Structure prediction request, 325 residues.
Amino acid sequence: MTEPRIPTIDLRPWLDGGTEARAALARTVDQALQTAGFLLVTGHGVDPGLRGAVRAAARRFFVLPVEAKQAYEAKVGGRGWLGPRAEANAYAEGTETPPDLKESLTFATHEPFEDPVVNAEWYAPNVWPAETPELQGLCEEYLARMADLEKVLLSLLGYALGLDPDFFSRHMDHPTYGFNINWYPGTDVLGEPEPGQFRIGPHTDFGTVTILDRQAGKGGLQVYTDPVAGGVGWEDAPYDPAAFTVNIGDLMARWTGDRWRSGRHRVLPPPADAPGEELMSLVYFGECTPGTLVESVPAPVGRVAYPPVDSHVYLRAKLDSITVR
Prediction:
């Protein structure tokens, strides 16, 4: 039997196992990230009850009248509420689609940074809806768990490349991150999809690693694997309710000289045979400390030598590119 393009890995051998178990896990990770750029991750220790509580609190906000939500309206990359059709993620890869069919609550790093210019751009205070006061505590607890999980994943990724375990994590002494709670309601809320319109259009993420807690649905996540490299094009992403879906972003792909693929994906529109389908995703976008110079590791690890890039100059350009004006 062939290995799945998107395997499920259990983190417990990495955390508690011996040398052989850790090496075997690292080989699986390396192979999967070369083909699809995606993994399912179990053994992470994050309480499913916490994930459910965040969703329930967020839904209480999303079903509020539009006028109430508009008090928290933000721009792409900001903190607050993004209404329907505020983003078109496919723009980032140069694909023209109608704007995305979703609403989002967006939060991010807020601890002050020493540079006031950087602080103003990347560390603004979060905006928490007064109508759902329980959301703040739940999200802060969830984000603390995501930060811990991100550090574990980054150490595994460094090891999988044969590099120092802190090769990536040493650039995370004061990292930024983005956190989106994406609500995908049915057509009764957002109307019928236009031709070529998605809940989220085809794109790759912009940062280092993305940690996604998703729900299964007919209008759910699809992943693209290149047929030229043995893939099948677009296919439904595998789903395990106990697992996080983890994918590589553009900065990590550049760092590895395209040894690992930035995982291309999309979220389908509400299906015609289930137009009322409602889904919600919790999406943690890992980044790094502002000013980090991302340089491709050389061959034989890296495949392509990208010119060095400032991490947050790159991120800002990408965020600007998906904004619907």
Observations:
- DSSP finds nine helices and 14 strands in the chain.
